[in-house]
TrEMBL record:
Signal peptide: none annotated. It comes from the Bacteria. InterPro entries: AKR (IPR020471), LGALDH-like (IPR044479), NAD(P)_OxRdtase_dom_sf (IPR036812), NADP_OxRdtase_dom (IPR023210). Residues 16-292 form the NADP-dependent oxidoreductase domain. This is Aldo/keto reductase. It comes from Cryptosporangium minutisporangium. Transmembrane segments: none annotated. It holds the Pfam family Aldo_ket_red.
Length: 310
């Protein structure tokens, strides 16, 4: 396992992080014993960064994670969670709500502090409010020792760039924007580096797009993008390879990212993914997949308020 300092913070994180959305059932039902085994397997293998949110499973992921971490040395992992998003269409970035959200998360997670607190999916909110109200409220919690670093997350890169350019944030978490299919995060990395902002790259498998199983029904990708990724997965299978393996290896090779966060729902997937990280991507297979993806390379989907995507 490779460990890197997370710029903008005093934290050090593993190069691959455990995404805890599956613990909340976002990708299918998961038994509590399996969830605990998944977390413990990741920790035993050297994964130190765990990323969760009250939105995942509508608080279920935090509760399950808190149970799984009971009795584990608190200094052995970096715990990241979020505020601001609580349901599919429920967002509240007000100072009062995010402060209460942190208090609620602390109880569910069974800890006295959160290492990294993040404003979740800021593109659904008023960015002025995030800058002028949300982030200052979270900084107040940092002064009290309840959180150790403050960041933002979202899908549209313009929203992340806008807020990071206007307010002091420690980290940004971008998802689905540095994958085999979409690489638009890379040109933004110098902007964040100049400001000593740590970058986390989440969903390197495109929230299921770049897997044999394909994305869940709720995935916002277009039919054309789904079809192109399915064709790429089928090609890899014919070649005796796996698209998910290629995608993970590709994403982990990006310099300038502190950690790549991958959702994992069982111990077998943890062991498999960590084994894959020890190998470089197959460049010939990558070139063939790029050709298959064709005009769907760098294609995305609309998310949040339209004004926050410009």
């Amino acid at each position: 396992m490779i460990y890197r300092p997370l710029p903008g913070t005093t934290l050090t994180v593993s190069s691959i992080g455990l995404g805890a959305a599956p613990l909340g059932g976002e990708y299918g039902t998961i038994e509590p014993a399996t969830a605990t085994a998944t977390v413990r397997t990741a920790l035993d293998a050297g994964v130190t960064l765990i990323d969760v949110s009250p939105y995942y499973g509508r608080t279920a992921a935090e509760t399950v994670l808190g149970d799984a971490l009971r009795g584990v040395d608190r200094d052995s992992y970096v715990l990241a969670t979020k505020v601001g998003r609580y349901d599919v269409a429920e967002f509240d970035f007000s100072a009062d709500r995010v402060v209460r959200s942190v208090e609620e998360s602390l109880r569910r997670l069974g800890t006295d502090h959160i290492d990294l607190i993040q404003c979740h999916d800021i593109e659904f909110g008023d960015l002025d409010q995030v800058v002028d109200e949300t982030l200052p409220a979270l900084r107040g919690l940092e002064e009290k020792g309840l959180v150790r670093a403050v960041g933002i997350t979202g899908y549209p890169l313009p929203a992340l760039v806008s807020v990071a350019g206007r307010a002091p944030v420690d980290t940004v978490l971008s998802y689905c924007h540095y994958t085999v299919q979409n690489r638009t995060l890379a040109p933004q990395l110098p902007f964040f580096a100049e400001r000593d902002i740590g970058v986390l790259n989440a969903s390197p498998l495109g929230m299921g797009l770049l897997t044999d199983a394909g994305p869940p029904d709720w995935h916002p990708a277009s039919a054309e993008l789904r079809a192109a990724c399915a064709e790429a997965a089928a090609f890899c299978r014919r070649e005796g390879a796996e698209l998910a393996r290629l995608a993970l290896q590709f994403a982990l090779a990006l310099p300038g990212v502190a950690s790549t966060i991958v959702g994992m729902a069982d111990p077998e997937t943890v062991a498999r993914n960590l084994a894959w990280t020890a190998e470089p991507p197959d460049t010939e297979l990558l070139a063939a997949v790029e050709e298959i993806l064709g005009d769907q390379r760098d294609a995305g989907w609309p998310v949040g308020r339209p004004e926050n995507s410009r």
